[in-house]
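Q: Got a minute? One more chain.
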Amino acid sequence: MMFRRLLSATLAAGSVLTMAAIGSADTPTASRTAGRAALYKQLPGESLEQVSTAQQIKGVTAGNAAPTEIWRVLGHGERLECLSCIPYVSKLLYDEHAKTREISAWWLRRRVFGVFGPGEVYSRVVATLQGDPSEKRRAYAAEAVGEFLTGSGVKFVAKAAVSDSSPLVRKSAVLALMRLNHQGQNGELGQVLQSETDPEVKLAALHASIRVNVFTNVDAVAGLISDADSRVRQRAAENLGVLRAKDAVVGLVALTSPANEKDAGVRAAAVASLGRIADPGVNGEVRAAVQAAKNDANQFVRDAAAIALRRL
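A: Always. Here it is, folded:
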C-alpha cells in the first residue's frame, strides 16, 4: 500500500512537471520553460528545448521572415497543437523556397484534424493540382501531395505525371510518386519512361525508378539507353546496373564501344553496370567488351573497366 501511494505521488509530480514544461500555445516562453529550468538547473538555459508559440508561427508566415527563421520556428513547433495556425502555414506550400515548402508540408501532415478532412488543406491542394491555371502552383501542389505521405494522393500525382500539359508539373508529380514510394496504380512511372518527351522529366523518372521499392518496369529503363539525350542514356545505363538487369547486358555491351557511343560518360556508365550485373551466362562477351574498354581514350572509362574486371 505504501509503495502504491509513493508511486502515485511520483507520477502526479511528473505530470505537473511535464505540463509545466510543455505549456500551451499562448503561454509566454519564459513561463513554459520555467519548469524545465528548475528541474535541470545544472544545465544552461539554451540547452533546453524551445517550443514555438502560435504567435511565432503566425508571425513568420506574414511574408517578411527569412527562410531560416521560418524553418526554425516550424521545427520547434512540431508538438504545438494550433488549429488556427493551419491556414497561415498552408500558404507556405506555395512559397518560392523549396525547403520552406517542404517543412511546411511536414508541419501540416502532423495535424490530421484541419488538414485531411473534406474541404481542408489536403483537398484544396489536390484541387490546385488538378485545375489551377498556374503551372508553378500545380507543381508545388504535386510536391505537397508527396510530402503529405498519404496513400490517397498516389492517384492524383500519378495522373498528373502522365497527363499534365506542363513538364514542370509532370516532373514534380514524378518526384511526388518517389516520395510516396509508389510507381502509380497503373504503373504510371514506367509510362513516363516510355512516352515522355522532356529530358528533365525522364531524368526525374529515372531517379525515381531506383528509389521506389516496388518499381517493376525495368524494360522501360532499358529502352532509354538509346535516347537522344546523353544524360538520359547515361542515367539509364547506371540504373540498369543498380537494378541488376541481366536482360539489358547486350545493350550495355554495345554502349561500351566508341563506335556506337560517342559520349564517354555513357560508355563509363555502361562498363560499370556490366561489372555490377556480372552475369555469368554472358561473361565471355562481357569480359571482352570490358577488357577493350581498358584501352578507351577516356580515363574515366578505363577506370570503370579496371573496377568492372575485378567483379567479372
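A: The chain has a mean pLDDT of 89.
Q: Perfect, thanks.
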